[in-house]
Amino acid sequence: MSIEPQSSSEFSNEALCELVKQSIPKHVAIIMDGNGRWAQSQGKPRVIGHKAGVKAVRRAVSTAREMGIGSLTLFAFSSENWRRPDKEVSLLMELFFTVLQRELKLLHKNGVRLNIIGDISRFSERLQKQIASAMAKTEDNTGLVLNVAANYGGRWDIMQAAQTLAEKVESGEMSSSQFTEEALSQHLCMQNQPEVDLMIRTGGDFRISNFVLWQAAYAELVFTDVLWPDFDEQAFKDAVAIFATRQRRFGLTGSQIETLQAEQ
Ligand code: IPE
Ligand code: IPE
Ligand code: MG
């Protein structure tokens, strides 16, 4: 059976089969939710939950490395999280700064490439410098790619890519007919990484909250009630096990997928 790609953005049979077959996702994105409720359920201030969340981040990074996942994208601060009380926002910024400083050595030693995605121009000068130097230090690493989404929004990402392309059209560098899906993808965050295969949300809610919208167009979604600070190695492996049981069809029928797999 031949399934002909209709446009450059569609998959070849081989690429499709590869995607359908994988039991370990190449790219996992996690909405790390539930820190505040975790702390409040113990009668503690929300910030204690964020601090406990850092430990869960460390565990998730090490589990991702152990499982051979290529890219891990963690939602740390959304473009909407500025709406929180000033005190919580500044505590989160401070935490982000100290964690970057403290964890960098180990990440680098473990060959992790750190990539901060989001509009960092709203952060303090000090934090922006810290981000730039952390990314520069690890840029040649070839292990896990750790994308940390900070002041990130899926709509912002699509808009900034569209804006760049619009400017190119305006300046005559490209024509409007070259403003394609492919071209837009090339200007999004994480453009050189595989699209998101698995998106996990902890904390019991069933929504995407403006996380990677474009890149997760065909992601498998796994929602868990586990609050982020309790998300451990087993919970991560359970989510990947659920992923492995899903039949990804990418618009095809189930029997087309079975035939394609049998032929490869
Ligand atoms: C996620 O946990 C972390 C951030 C958004 C920074 P929350 O802080 O949203 O925790 P809940 O959802 O209020 O429990
Ligand atoms: C999503 O969690 C953002 C992060 C995990 C950083 P939120 O707690 O901000 O999401 P909503 O507000 O419940 O949708
Ligand atoms: Mg929340």
From TrEMBL:
Annotated residues that bind Mg(2+) are located at 33, 220
Which cofactors must be present for this protein to function?
Mg(2+)
Q: What is its EC number?
A: 2.5.1.31
Q: Does the keyword Metal-binding apply?
A: yes
Q: Which CDD domains match?
A: Cis_IPPS (cd00475)
Active site residues per record: 33, 81
Which InterPro entries did the record assign?
Answer: UPP_synth-like, UPP_synth-like_CS, UPP_synth-like_sf
Annotated residues for binding of substrate? 34-38, 46, 50, 78-80, 82, 84, 201, 207-209
Task: Tell me which UniProt keywords the record has, alphabetically.
Answer: Cell shape, Cell wall biogenesis/degradation, Magnesium, Metal-binding, Peptidoglycan synthesis, Transferase
Write down the chemical reaction(s) this protein catalyses: 8 isopentenyl diphosphate + (2E,6E)-farnesyl diphosphate = di-trans,octa-cis-undecaprenyl diphosphate + 8 diphosphate
Oligomeric state and interaction partners are given as:
Homodimer.
Q: Tell me, in a sentence or two, what this protein's role is.
A: Catalyzes the sequential condensation of isopentenyl diphosphate (IPP) with (2E,6E)-farnesyl diphosphate (E,E-FPP) to yield (2Z,6Z,10Z,14Z,18Z,22Z,26Z,30Z,34E,38E)-undecaprenyl diphosphate (di-trans,octa-cis-UPP). UPP is the precursor of glycosyl carrier lipid in the biosynthesis of bacterial cell wall polysaccharide components such as peptidoglycan and lipopolysaccharide.
Instruction: Report the sequence similarity comment from the record.
Output: Belongs to the UPP synthase family.
- What is this protein identified as? Ditrans,polycis-undecaprenyl-diphosphate synthase ((2E,6E)-farnesyl-diphosphate specific)
Question: What is the originating organism of this protein?
Answer: Shewanella colwelliana
Q: What is the lineage of its organism?
A: Bacteria, Pseudomonadati, Pseudomonadota, Gammaproteobacteria, Alteromonadales
